[in-house]
Amino acid sequence: MALAWAIEIDKDGESAMEIDFLSGGTDGIDGPTDAAGAMASTGLIPAANAQGLDAASFLARNDSYQFFSQLHHGQFHLVTGHTLILLRLLKMPQDS
Description:
alpha+beta, glycerate kinase, domain 1, four-stranded antiparallel beta sheet, 4 helices, 4 strands
């Protein structure tokens, strides 16, 4: 979900506004991986492009795990162990 969100927010040209998005799974793991989800922000796609990562290609293969593992050495992966909760957070700046 975080990768799809990052791709869409990049297409919409909202990158001038700093927005963070965190998506975490209900049990603290995502299928056969150790990740519970990932965190994305408005600068994620340009950062991925700079590393030579094609976000859309990873998403088309349903392989966001490898995408987030490779992006900045996995610093955006959410690895919590079992939590038994579902979490979706969106942080946007407040109007002044």
